[in-house]
Amino acid sequence: MSSHYQGKFSFIFDRNRLPLLKPILLPTTEKGALGRIWAASRRRSFTLEYEWKATIANANFASHLNGEIIIPVEHGGKPLEFDGASVPMPWLVGMLSFGVLRPLGILLTASIVHDYAFCAGGLKYSSGDSFRVVTRQEADRLFREIVTDVNEMPFWGFLAWCAVRLGWVIGIKYAGKRFTESPPWLPLVVLFAVITALTLIVNTLGLTTFVLLTVAIYALAYTVRAAID
Predict the structure, then answer these.
(1) Each residue's pLDDT tens digit, 29-68
(2) Which residues have a Cβ under 8 Å from the Cβ of 120 and sit 6 or more positions away?
(3) Please, which residues have CB within 8 angstroms of residue 26's CB and are 6 or more apart in sequence?
(4) What is the pTM of this model?
(5) Share of the chain above pLDDT 70, in %
(6) Which residue in 145, 175, 201, 206 has the fewest CB atoms around it within 10 Å?
């Protein structure tokens, strides 16, 4: 049975055959206390247990992406590793988004496609030209569209897109190369606007009041969430 989510862009997949991920153990053994903390704070990586198929439809921003894609278990003779779209500091992004933007949450299906594209520099298709080159910007845009379409959450899809686009700034590689294509100007503008707004708020309220208010809001939000769950 396939899930067809409505909208201009569609990401179609079998709900009865979701991607099965196997976690890669974190290297926390035989390390000192600080080394274990550092290792434990790194992005968690996974491998696929079997290849996964999905269909991209109505990708008007890059029509060559349309078709049934295959996410393989291996690439270049090595197991593919998936780390949740290489979102910089995922623990911080998850916390700031009240747990919404988690690699194993609403980002999961999109991040699997995104991670493969970042590794291979393109996507594998089941028919026609079996491998199609995908640019970094197209891969990031595809990530945004999948998050938006599958979860019907355009705002969070935009924020997730900003997060992966900012990976360019810290040198996250695409197809083995850093700083490919143009800088992510819009996400940088958004980041600058957020920092500016926070600076104005801190200057208005004072640092202590701002910190206490922020802690109170997060504590209330997580308490309510825990009570509901």
Answers:
(1) 777 788 777 777 777 789 999 999 999 999 999 999 999 9
(2) 75, 131, 175
(3) 39, 40, 42, 44
(4) 0.85
(5) 93
(6) 206
**Encoded tokens for 176:** 């083995």
Q: Can you say whether the dihedral through the CA atoms of 64, 70, 74, 76 is positive or negative?
A: negative
Burial level of 204, CB count in 10 A (0-12/13-18/19+)?
exposed
Please say whether the beta carbons of 109 and 19 come within 8 A. yes
Rounded distance, CA 203 to CA 6, Å?
44
